[in-house]
Amino acid sequence: MNAFDELMTHHVENTGLGGFAVGVAPAVIPKEDADQSRVAELTNELNRLAGALMDLSSVTSVRLGVQGHGSLDPFVNWQRMLEPKPLLDAAVVRSCCLQAAGRLEGLKAKAEALATPSIEPSQLHPLVWSAAQRLWNDGHLRQAVAAAAEAVSGQMKQLTQRNNAADTSLWQQAFAVSDPQPGKPRLRWPGDSDDQDVKTMQAGLLSFAPGVNMVIRNPATHVSHPFTEQDGLEQLATLSVLCRFVDQCVVVTHDSDPEPAS
User: Fold this and answer.
1) Distance of alpha carbon 216 from its chain centroid, rounded?
2) pLDDT tens, 117-126?
3) d(Cα 170, Cα 196) in Å, to the nearest integer?
4) How far apart, in whole angstroms, are the C-alpha atoms of residue 154 and residue 217?
């Protein structure tokens, strides 16, 4: 539209009651003082853009029915307004451009409304993505998940100061409902321990955290199997959820007040 509008500053529209041989002479006539070199540049640019927009007419359903010529693509055939017995005029080309632009806006809005949510890896928990990023970007998806899982387990070990048992056992001990013991701190969901919602979260984490370790970390670390990008994204997202839960927990030892895990 911008290129077309600039081209028209070098031309006069030959239409309406004041036109000359309307319907026979071209619908657009160059001005006497037109910059011919610039007109040539704009003509070439419009032809290039018409080629780039070859599918625009079919995508937007913007076409013209011209008697004796059938259905006409107004973008590809824009130059027909410069020819004798023109099939198009400038007003029609402008109108078609505006209709196509509006149609594209409508299609974009519809696509956005129907689009399914997607997982953006860089928006995952920083600990998870920083551990996985290099391997993921290099195409080593399973190894990226394994590295992220190790980072999450490492965070738990650092918080509880434990590294004397298998990871699954340490997760079970970290969220155990029993009181902390010397050398065995617990991770507790914040809030009143007698509150039912707090109890539910604590019990859920006791199942969830060891389960994540068993079904995500262990296979990713020890089992070689087909692994798709969708598999990896879902598993990284699960690790991210666990990591964010751990961030909200408090560390409880047998002889101290709770401290925020993060």
Assistant:
1) 25
2) 777 888 999 9
3) 25
4) 12
- pTM for the whole thing? 0.60
Closest to 19 in 3D by CA, of 11, 31, 27 = 27
Domain count, the chain: 2
DSSP state string for 108-159:
HHHHHHHPPP---GGGS-HHHHHHHHHHHHTT-HHHHHHHHHHHHHHHHHHH
- Residue 196, domain extent: 121-260
Count of residues making up the chain: 262
Residues 91, 207, single domain; the answer is no
For the segment 185-194, what is each residue's pLDDT rounded down to a tens digit? 999 999 998 9
Determine contact, residues 250/190, Cβ cutoff 8 Å.
yes
Boundary of a domain, candidates 58, 86, 114: 114
CA distance 155 to 212: 14
Average predicted confidence (pLDDT) for the chain: 92
Choosing from 87, 114, 141, the residue where a domain stops is: 114
